[in-house]
Design goal:
This protein has nine helices and four strands; from the N terminus they run ααααααααββαββ. It has helices at 3-7, 10-26, 33-49, 54-66, 78-92, 97-108, 120-130, 148-155, 183-204; strands at residues 156-164, 169-176, 207-212, 215-216.
Length: 218
Amino acid sequence: MLYKDILGSKEIVDYYEIGTLILGKQGFIDHSPVHTRLVAERAAKILDTLGYRERDVELAQIAGYLHDIGNCINRSSHAEYGAIIASQILKDADMEMMDRVQVVSSIANHEETEETVPDPITAAIIIADKTDVRRTRVRERDEAKFNDNDWVNKAAVSTELKCDASARTISLTIGIDESVLSVSDYIEMFTGRANMCLRAAETLKVTMEVFINDQKVL
């Protein structure tokens, strides 16, 4: 099974349509295929740049695209539910067993906040996921109901993720609107995401750097 086969699946689109509808009513930021395709592409680019094998790059694309599919069942446990849904989809599509296990594991572990990141594919997905900050992801209209994720995305006017194989670095550059958040407030709200990226970077044996309005903060 290839990434292009996953993109062509109506079943997967239907799962995401339901999940997007549910999260929209709850005011969560966007987790639609717009987000998951970006995660798939960024994760694949990271692994390809760092010289991982072609099949690992392909599996990162597949897992990246499927990583939020569990939102159609429950947000708080969406990683675990997503792994279950994805396992059945990939089994029905006759994906080779070990490849399926890798994809399922990466989906299940992409929200781990305290544990060591188990493998490079999961690490690439975590970095790609947590660095997707942009104003267009915000769907809650009432700022009085904003959480940190809403503010981090609302303030972001530009983002760029670069991977340098020779320097062994992954750099995230975020331009923020300081009329929405100060740099110091942004750093505080971004800390959870940054810590997950740091752990993921360790697994990839690279250094993670974060720049906000041209200031190096990590």
